[in-house]
Amino acid sequence: MGGERGKKVVVLVGPAASGKSTFALELVERTKTDEGDRWVRVCQDVISNGKRGSRKQCVRALQAGLTQGLSVVVDRCHVDPGQRADFVKAARDSGAGEVIAVVFQVSSDELKQRMLGRLNHEGGLNGKRGVAVCQRMLKMMKPPTESEGFTKILYISNEKDRRDVICDHLCADRAAVD
Question: Where does this protein have coiled-coil stretches (predicted)?
Answer without folding.
Answer: none
